[in-house]
């Protein structure tokens, strides 16, 4: 049983295995990285089972992708350029310069980044790190920077990097983090019937995350920099896979870094953990520009995930297919939308062209055609499909109760669901059983039946994140809500938030109804920034703006440096902060700030 047909996929073509192994120098033995307290933060050896034949609990195409992505070690990309792969979700690339080595993308955790650098040095000598490049502002490309820095060196990043790096988790961070547990299968056992990767890589490391601000911004396409004697030509690609991202060419080595804009899967236009929808059209346009600017000077293209592509013609073919992939999904979704199809219908109707079906790297291991088509629909038309019957539907519990009643009660619905499942219509079986569970979450038999359907959906899925969602849903139906693993809270990430972002973060946590009758103003006078931010709470909403000195006094004025702001907001106290006015205002404000529920239910009401 597969959701995604295995069809006539070219399993005989071993090119990817040859490329993933090419230039192998040495592996980390064992492939495990621990923190200073002994806690395991990365265990690639846990995926050794992928060397076995694909069992019937996994889609053969995803199994293949997991086997490739779990290939671990130090690899030569070309003369002077190396990659460490399989030591985190992402790759670390090392470019040798005149006096040391440039690190591209220092992984998620300081521990895995240090292990990757040590593996490189064990084989290439104890070269100092002379520069760092962040390809883009996602945490798997900067979080481990402290693992590679010995002292101050130039750090290059695309324009808008800091804003993008810290803002993604400010507003919807709690919900995204909870949903990311599902997306990466954090709670699942690694094994043939469990987590076998997420398509983009295996999983995320769980060490300490940091952020050191860039010292050099790349602000325009065509910008050329020389780092440690190495010439680099940049192409900015804002609004593709990340709001701040860039590709770049090493012209003297004829090597092209494609960041995360062209990896060996169909990427996400919207990630299942939730995100602002990305622009497939712009993504495709920048891939075309990369071909136009760089392909003639490229013998090898590598990226921040997966393995490189060698040979000028193969690079052009690879990038062209990736370009066509995003453009096709974008254009065809719009065409179908304009014939009246909604997102669900368009996702069902859209068929990929044969060449994109036959190439492995265009397959939906991380993104999927199905959810990317819905993302394009969402970007242009939003959640409403125009049908008034779907304009004002009951929420899930109210709807489920009514459906189950109409269908003759839980037992009757469960029997129907079993029949659909037996006929292979797992999608509708899941829909029916979800209604039974939402109508009565204490019905353990229904929960077990639904979990069994989710298992089968997972085993048939070519997409790693779909598989992880189904399996995590099954796990929580059987065992209850999973506690998030302890994250190493990064004071550096919080410290990098702007005053506006911090005030926004508080505004989002105001319990509106509880604060309806509260009226107060607080002036934050920053001695180091030379500005006053006034926050006003009224009508259950906290707004803020910069005000001139000497206007109407606020209820309370705090005179402080920006670094002290966080401790006030966390309710730690007002040590060494000069105050003027009614100190009771702080307690009144903190009293209406809600602590978010990081373990909210998903597969139960
Ligand atoms: Zn990444």
Description:
The protein is of the alpha+beta class. Helix content is 36%, strand content 16%. The chain is built from 19 helices and 21 strands. The strands form four sheets. The protein has an eight-stranded mixed β-sheet, covered by helices on one side. Strands 11-12-13-14-15-16 form a six-stranded mixed β-sheet. It has a five-stranded mixed β-sheet with strand order 19-18-17-20-21, covered by helices on one side. The longest helix has 26 residues. The chain is globular. The mean pLDDT is 95. Zinc ion binds next to loops. Zinc ion (ZN) binds next to loops.
Structure characteristics:
605 residues, alpha+beta, eight-stranded mixed β-sheet, six-stranded mixed β-sheet, 19 helices, 36% helix, binds zinc ion
Care to give the gist of this entry?
With 605 residues, the protein is an alpha+beta fold. The chain has helices at 15-21, 60-69, 110-124, 161-167, 173-184, 280-294, 312-337, 343-349, 354-358, 369-381, 396-406, 410-422, 426-439, 444-459, 464-479, 491-495, 499-509, 565-569, 584-591; strands spanning 24-26, 32-34, 40-43, 73-78, 81-85, 92-96, 101-104, 129-133, 155-158, 216-218, 224-227, 230-236, 246-250, 255-257, 300-302, 309-310, 520-526, 531-538, 541-547, 556-560, 578-581. β11 and β12 (230-236) form a beta hairpin.
